[in-house]
Amino acid sequence: MKIGIVCPYSFDAPGGVQYHVRDLAEELISRGHDVSVLAPVEKADVPSFIHAVSGSYTVPYNGSVAQLSLSPKAVRETKAWLEEGQFDVVHIHEPLAPSISLIALAYAKSPIVATFHTSMVKSRSLKLAVPVLRPLLDRIAGRIAVSNEARRTLVEHQGGDAVIIPNGVYRAPFANASDIEKWKGTPERPTLFWIGRIDEPRKGLHVLAGAIDEVVAKNPNARFLIAGRGDASAVHDLMDKYPNNVEFAGDVDPQTRNSLYHGATAYIAPQTGGESFGIVLVEAMSAGTLVIASDIEAFRLVLNGGQLGMLFTSADSSDLARAINQALENPRAAKSLADAGHEASKLYDWGVVTDKILAVYATVVGTASVEVENTDTLIDSVRQTFAPNRKE
User: To 10 degrees, what angle do helices 100-107 and 124-137 make?
Assistant: First the structure.
């Protein structure tokens, strides 16, 4: 099958959607499919199957920032990629993101499958955009949501429904990772691991910081190992305050990240919202590590209400400290939860996830695409809204 995949977000600042697209493409290629990925790229070193679109810009989005591409040049490059590809199916991620996903949604002549990743409670921009872009949404022949939360956002804000197919994980690199001895958790020196965008509030580092006092009071040898990119001044402040308990690993490479998951006593996920799934939880579960996570809806679903890991009240540092201390004081119960999570992570292996995505492709291949009038006007209107001053 000839498959075109569109990622709206730049690979120069990779995140969950970019990794999802890359891994899906690699799995499909390994099965003999002909795959091309279209994505914004300026400087990043990317696999040969990624066709780069230039001219990205940064906008606030869902509590974070995103690098998107919607310039006139991006429109031309996307249309040329679609024309040259002659794909059996075009798989568009986040189809309403003001980037090349929206361009592909407007101009693709092949059957379209769309994956929705985002979770939002309210969105003024979506409320305004959906009525205008409704004709483009009608072009989607198959809809996928990565979680119940992403499906809820789709149903409430955009209309229509979707089959739920979760994000995928290659489990083996996490399960078989070698521990890094200096950071490996032991009963005498437990390691509590956090990784994320350090200066992004919704990732919850401040919630973890607020729990340290109560944890150290009961477990003075507990070590909080922090990793990630962004402004690390808050981490250095914590290191000054807790010189024997807080360590910083920096912006680690994937292999080191896998080792840190595998060697940790527990992985801490204190995110406060804006998460549609929780791929970091599945990564830790794949490594066989206990997950202690905030009780936001997406995380409760991944952890099956606390059957596959521990939950604490979102944004409540004291309750997080309670959960950590409980895990450290009851290692047998903690291991039982970690083992259950490890077994459940098999459901998210890319082999299983890709089978389900291919089944969706099979339902749309050969169907006729819906034609839409005035697509040039629609795309130009969106472009002027999000990047009015951007030049080629």
Answer: 30
Do residues 103 and 70 touch, judged by C-beta distance below 8 A?
A: yes
Q: Which pair of tokens denotes residue 330?
A: 């009851």
Three-class SS string for 330-380? Answer: CHHHHHHHHHHHHHHHHHHEHHHHHHHHHHHHHHHCCCCCCCCCCHHHHHH
Please tell me the distance from the alpha carbon of residue 25 to that of residue 186, in angstroms, as a whole number: 38
Of residues 128, 134, 97, 99, the one with CA closest to residue 115 = 97
Tell me, what DSSP letter sits at residue 167?
Answer: P
CA dist 81 and 85 (Å) reads: 6
Residue 172 clears pLDDT 50, i.e. is over it: yes
DSSP 53: E
Check pLDDT > 60 for residue 326: yes
Token readout for 179 is 């521990």
CB count, 10 Å around CB of 83? 11
Which one-letter amino acid corresponds to residue 96? L
Query: Does the model's pTM come out above 0.70?
Result: yes
Tokens of 152: 């809820």
Q: pLDDT for 215-236, tens place per residue?
A: 999 999 999 999 999 999 999 9
Pairing of strands 57-61, 223-227: unpaired
Instruction: Judge contact between 101 and 6, C-beta under 8 A.
Output: yes
pLDDT at residue number 62: 54
Do residues 346 and 101 lie in contact, with contact meaning Cβ atoms separated by under 8 Å? no
In sequence order, what E strands does 18-71 have?
34-40, 50-53, 57-61, 64-68
Split at pLDDT 50, 70, 90, the class of 64 is low
- Computed over every residue of the chain, the mean pLDDT equals 92
- Round to whole Å and give the CA distance between 256 and 249: 9
State the residue for tokens 């591409």: 69
Longest Cα–Cα distance in the chain: 67
Instruction: Identify the pLDDT of residue 391.
Output: 47
Six-digit token string for 283: 């990564």
Give pLDDT, residue 371. 83
Angle at 84 between CA 80 and CA 90, to 5 degrees: 90
Residue 13 confidence (pLDDT) above 70: yes
CA dihedral 223, 227, 233, 234 (to 10 degrees): -50
Q: Cβ neighbours of residue 225 under 8 Å, at least 6 residues apart?
A: 183, 191, 192, 193, 194, 247, 249, 260, 264
